[in-house]
Structure formats: structure tokens, C-alpha cells
User: Which sequence fits this backbone?
């Protein structure tokens, strides 16, 4: 479907997108990067059509404009100071500069639609207490975490399609005093896992790891790593409420249903999302298959939590402050199917 959306849009579109796909730019990324108004008729009327579209694509994909226009080279222009954390499984891969540059480009558009971000307490317990105060919440949910972020003018969005192979789960980028969290992990999964990713990036912001025009890109795992990963992990667990929770899963030898019953029974007294408790079991035992079987005994329907994330983004972003074609692109990115 993504490739079909570019069919018949003109020779320049065909040639440039073919080259970009050869460099790892997916059709569902390019579909949003090419303006809706660009047609074969536009090309026929524009003597500099190739240079014109190159300029548009460079800005929207985060490419080095000079390299693309003057030397016909596709060079991702990742933010200054970009730092990247990889899991062991990705140790042989180079950092996905194309993905980072593209997400930073999207983040810059988002930042143009929100006020400057407010400070976040370095004390995870204070952040947690504020979220739990929202309507006497039973625990810190994905929705509550999103509400907190947006109350601080910290934008959170999910980008379903990025260039190249998956090499990061999330990043946080600051531009013009605005913090933008971008989640790129694109799988059907638990809302609790997405809450952890967002709380982790919020930790980077709170702890002062993010500087203007720099960003932190993560594959979040339990390792300490560089870039304050261990501190950000502990902040996230503190916000979600399981940092000091009793490890009820230690020595557990029951069935998936019994694990689910135990997690759900513990959730009320601990004020921790039962899915998050089950997730901690999976992470610490490395038995994610057992964890998912347990959760399915309680939740039979597929979960697409990133719909919740982008619905909140659309509610808070003032897309009317952007040029119409740019707003159209960003809206398309937010509504890109996932799951």
C-alpha cells in the first residue's frame, strides 16, 4: 500500500524514492516524506523539479542538504552529540544514523508546536505521587504517564516506520527548550512495556542527561551501560513503583495462570500495574514466553498501546501552527498503522 501511494507521481519521485529505498528507506517512510501535492503535472511545470524534491526530502528525512543537492549523496544528518546504546543482540550493527536523523527531524516539527518544557523532579517518588493523584489512580498507567509528560510540555509520540533495520527502542531530543520523546519499537506488546520505555526517557530528562540539540537513543535493557542508562532505568522503576517492591516472582514454580493471579493480587497493595509486575518476572527470569502466556489468561485481546500514545499527541499538538503540507506529513506519521 505504501509503495502504491507513490505510483504515478512522476519520474523524479520514482527515481529518487528508488535510490532512497536502496539505502534502506522504507516505502511507508517515503510515502509521508513526498508531499501529497507533488504530482507528475507538478514535475512537468517545474524545471528544477529534481532539486526541489531533493530539498523537501532532505528536510523531511533528516538528510544533509548540501550532500544531497550538490553531490547527490544520501547522508543522514543525525543531531550533534547523538549517542546510541545497543543491546548485545545488536552489537554487530552500526548505529542507525538514518533512523536517528529521521526521528530528530520529526521531533523538530513536534517541538515547533509546543511550549518550552517544564522541569521534572529528579525524585522518582515525587513524580509517581503526582501521577497517582490523578483521580486516585490505582497505579501508574501508560495513560497517567502520558498525562504527566504533557502537563510538563514534554511531547511523546510513536513513529511506527523508520529507515533501516530496528536498532533502537526510543530516543529523547531537546530543541529550543522542548523535550520530545520518540518511541520506535513497533510490536504488539504490553502497555506496561511502553510505559517503561517512556518513563526511562523521562528519567534521562529529569536527571539532566539531555542537552540542547543533542539526543539519547536507546535499546533499553537491564544493563548499566553508558549515558546514565542505569540511573534512567532506576528512575523508571521508581516512577512505576517496582524499584523497591518485593520480588514476588523469586522461586515461583507455578502455572502461567497462577503467575497472573499472583501479579493481579499484588497489584492493588503495591499500587503497581499487574502487567508491569508480570513484565518484571519476564525480564528477570528471561522467560518472556511464560510471561505472555500468563498475561493472556487475563487479557485475551491484542494490545496496541501506541494508539493511545499518538491519540494523546494529536490531542495536544497544535498542527495548525505548521505549514499545511508539513502538518499533513506529521499527521500521517502519527496515524501510520502499527501492530
Assistant:
Amino acid at each position: 500500500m505504501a509503495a502504491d501511494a507513490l505510483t504515478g507521481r512522476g519520474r523524479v519521485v520514482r527515481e529518487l524514492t528508488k535510490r532512497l529505498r536502496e539505502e534502506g528507506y522504507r516505502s511507508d517512510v517515503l510515502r509521508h516524506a513526498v508531499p501529497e501535492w507533488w504530482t507528475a503535472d507538478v514535475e512537468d511545470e517545474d524545471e528544477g523539479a529534481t532539486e526541489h524534491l531533493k530539498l523537501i526530502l532532505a528536510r523531511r528525512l533528516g538528510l544533509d542538504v548540501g550532500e544531497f543537492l550538490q553531490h547527490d549523496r544520501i547522508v543522514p544528518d543525525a543531531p550533534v552529540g547523538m549517542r546510541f546504546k545497543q543491546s548485545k543482540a545488536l552489537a554487530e550493527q552500526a548505529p542507525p544514523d538514518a533512523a536517528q536523523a529521521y526521528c530528530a527531524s520529526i521531533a523538530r516539527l513536534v517541538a515547533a508546536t509546543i511550549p518550552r518544557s517544564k522541569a521534572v523532579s529528579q525524585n522518582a517518588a515525587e513524580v509517581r505521587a503526582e501521577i497517582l493523584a490523578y483521580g486516585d489512580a490505582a497505579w501508574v498507567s501508560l495513560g497517567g504517564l502520558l498525562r504527566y509528560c504533557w502537563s510538563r510540555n514534554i511531547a511523546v509520540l510513536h513513529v511506527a516506520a523508520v529507515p533501516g533495520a530496528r536498532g533502537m527502542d526510543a530516543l529523547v531530543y531537546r530543541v529550543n527548550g522542548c523535550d520530545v520523546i520518540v518511541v520506535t519499537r513497533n510490536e504488539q506488546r504490553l502497555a506496561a512495556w511502553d510505559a517503561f520505555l517512556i518513563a526511562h526517557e523521562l528519567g534521562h530528562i529529569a536527571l539532566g542527561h539531555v542537552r540542547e540539540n543533542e539526543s539519547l537513543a536507546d535499546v533499553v535493557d537491564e544493563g548499566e551501560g553508558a549515558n546514565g542508562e542505569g540511573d534512567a532505568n532506576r528512575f523508571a522503576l521508581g516512577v512505576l513503583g517496582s524499584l523497591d517492591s518485593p520480588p514476588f516472582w523469586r522461586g515461583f514454580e507455578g502455572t502461567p495462570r497462577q503467575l497472573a493471579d499472583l501479579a493481579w493480587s499484588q497489584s492493588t497493595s503495591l499500587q503497581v500495574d499487574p502487567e508491569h509486575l508480570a513484565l518484571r518476572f519476564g525480564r528477570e527470569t528471561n522467560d518472556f514466553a511464560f510471561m505472555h502466556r500468563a498475561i493472556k489468561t487475563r487479557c485475551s485481546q491484542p494490545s496496541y498501546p501506541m494508539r493511545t500514545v499518538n491519540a494523546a499527541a494529536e490531542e495536544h499538538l497544535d498542527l495548525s501552527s505548521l505549514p499545511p503540507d508539513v502538518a499533513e506529513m506529521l499527521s500521517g506519521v502519527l496515524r501510520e498503522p502499527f501492530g
User: Anything to note?
Assistant: The chain has 15 helices and five strands.
